[in-house]
Amino acid sequence: MLSIYSLDFPLFYFISFSLFSLDSFPKSMDWEPLAAAKASISPYDLLFQALALIPFSHYFFAASFLFLIFLYRFLEIHFLHDLLTLFRGDPVTLTYNSCSDLAQSVVANCKILQGRYLATPWLSSPHLQTAFLSFLGRPPPLTYRRHLFRAFDGGTIALDWLTYTDVVGGTSCMPDSSAAPKGDKTPIVIVIPGLTSDSAAASIEALLRVQYVKHLAFNLARQGWNVVVSNHRGLGGVSLTSDCCYNAGWTEDLRKIIDHIRCEYPEAPLYAVGTSIGANILVKYLGEDGANTPLFGAAAICSPWDLLICDRFINRRPMQKLYDRALTVGLQGYAQLYAFITSFCRISLLTFESSSLRDFDNHATRVLGKFETVDTYYRRSSSTNYVENVSVPLLCVSALDDPVCTSEAIPWDECRLNENIILATTPHGGHLAFYEGITASSIWWVRVVNEFFGVLRISPHIEGRKKMQGSTMPKPLQSSIDQAPYLNVMEDGMVTAMSNEQTDAFVEDISDADTTHSKKDEGTISDKGTSVDLTDKLNPEKQIKQQVEQNVKDLIVPVQGRIDKLSRRSRQSIWLLVYISIITTWPFVGSVLLSVLKRRFKTFKPGTLFRK
């Protein structure tokens, strides 16, 4: 039955006045009490009374919906995007030199790089992926074989080995204490982790190192590679035994480790993988040494590239500030662990007061590295300055939604100009996560690196690299500028002094096995008593002459290469200067030329040309 109250208000008002005549109302009716009562009722009270009539469940659903929208934007979730694309994933963007032989022979055979990447549907967020990798990454169980390496300054570096014989049938077994044979030709992959702390420290990078490094080492060893994880100084359960500490631009440890492994296994091809800060160190090392590096190939995963840009980025948004705080706490634990060392004593109190990664670098890293300012440390340690000089095949993988290493720092143009670099970027992936599959049991970039090294291993580039390795190559350019009396050639062509201390350091870096072999060789030579050795001992001038000739050869080769490079650049610079000079001086020259022509042809009349 239709009620009268269900009608609209104007219709109800009309019906009321039609039913009751105006004569039924008293003529002397007082309207003032009604107006006063109407004025006494607050509109907010009426609004609250109306809101109170809405059920509580409706409020709960509305609040939940708004909260989900906030989380979707705050956590940068892209599930709806994946749903609309029917979970096909996004194509991998490759940036490389179109004239590069590496792209034609290697990338063409890398099916994963030419495919698509789809993140795990229930991890459709860079923050969720990074958190899952940190706490629930489920790495494969494996056991490393540890060797300790003594650096030239007394520092100790832990090398964790996992050979292909340690992984049997896809599962890791307990390795024996014996090292790999000296003549083993199995290719070796050196892994440089990121900015890590101890496994017990409250650092995201410390947890990441345990997770993704095990994934990488296990998959590479299962495919027939020998893997060695080079832990940074003071990490991996090994105490800091010297005043020297690592930082984002410290490449000396990596250089010594590579030379040490090359001496131990001279016939094994060497490759390297760097992650996060380790990727920055690896690219910087490749740019510093150029063609002198003994590596056959490398991969840089989630590199920060430009530390100054990343420093600005990590302090920009609230979510990035959480990562910044987590990294700072981990580094504070590292400084507290070694506060007894002389170099840490004067800065330990300041590091505990650091509220951000920049503050820690200002109080500790800058002081220990002897940099003038924090920005100076960031600029000099950034690997983007060395991309141009990379001379070995390098695969770079980055996610555009990386919450730690922003895509704004990627050197797109530099990577495109270098024929040895292939840059692969994906819209999603997080920081070092790149989980794929419904169960999130696989990491995409681990499969990419495995495939890239496998294709590169059988490519023509390796044959050319082996010939280059077999030939006599100059030693890596050193960075010492305050040593004497020997000569040292810098990257910019400057000649500086170098002392005898470096020879002693090299002797400390070699292994005990090499020392034993050298002693045996010395014993054999002394027992034979050849006339050549006697002649060398009686004629020290001959040894000096040979040493001088060797020094001259080592000096001429890099200098000649630098001169050739400068000559090529000078020819280009001359034409550029001519063009700039013409453009910049044309207004002045044109005005002068116009004034001269006006004076010269002031009395000139065109009609005179037609006169006979």
Automatic annotation (TrEMBL):
UniProt xrefs under Gene3D superfamilies: alpha/beta hydrolase
Origin: domain of life: Eukaryota
Domain Serine aminopeptidase S33: residue ranges: 213-305
Keywords: Membrane, Transmembrane, Transmembrane helix
TM region positions: 7-26, 46-72, 574-597
Compositional bias (Basic and acidic residues): 514-525
Region Disordered, annotated ranges: 513-534
Family named by the database record: Belongs to the AB hydrolase superfamily. AB hydrolase 4 family.
Protein name per the record: Embryogenesis-associated protein EMB8 isoform X2
